[in-house]
Amino acid sequence: MHTLEERAHLRVLCVDDNHDLADSEGLLLQIVGFEVRVCYDGATALQIAESFQPCVCLLDLNMPGMDGDELATRLRELSKSRPMVLVALTARGDDASCTRIESAGFDMHLLKPVNPHQLVEVVDRLWATCYCSL
After folding, report:
1. Residue pLDDT, tens place only, 62-85
2. N or C: which end of the chain has fewer CB within 10 A?
3. Residue 36 lies in a domain
4. Is 88 helix (H, G, I), strand (E, B) or coil?
5. Are 25 and 114 a contacting pair, CB within 8 Å?
6. CATH code at 35?
7. Domain presence at residue 18
8. CB of 67 closer than 8 Å to CB of 42
9. Minimal CA–CA distance to 34: which of 58, 70, 59, 62?
10. What's the structural domain count of the chain?
């Protein structure tokens, strides 16, 4: 596990149309030291990502308007010059969902509801794959 000081340099974007879920994930990650932004739709996520330049994006797959698949594709276009880890959050873990997640370019996925300890552990572990300029 990383220290609070180390975690302060890892930017995380949480995107979910379920406000309570997005807010609670964001708050948890802030409490343990990560720099976090939370939003509730794909269009806002793209706006935030341009200036915030997250290293890790936690994306709900089933959002109205721009779904998580399209958002992942657009975030990849934005991040061509810097690494960004995309994590799909979904309530479905069947083979079709896993294929969809892989095809959309996600690096990994977590099943909802995500255990708070697991969420922190996963984001902390992703530290090794994130080389954002500080």
Report:
1. 899 999 999 999 998 887 777 889
2. C
3. yes
4. strand
5. yes
6. 3.40.50.2300
7. yes
8. yes
9. 58
10. 1
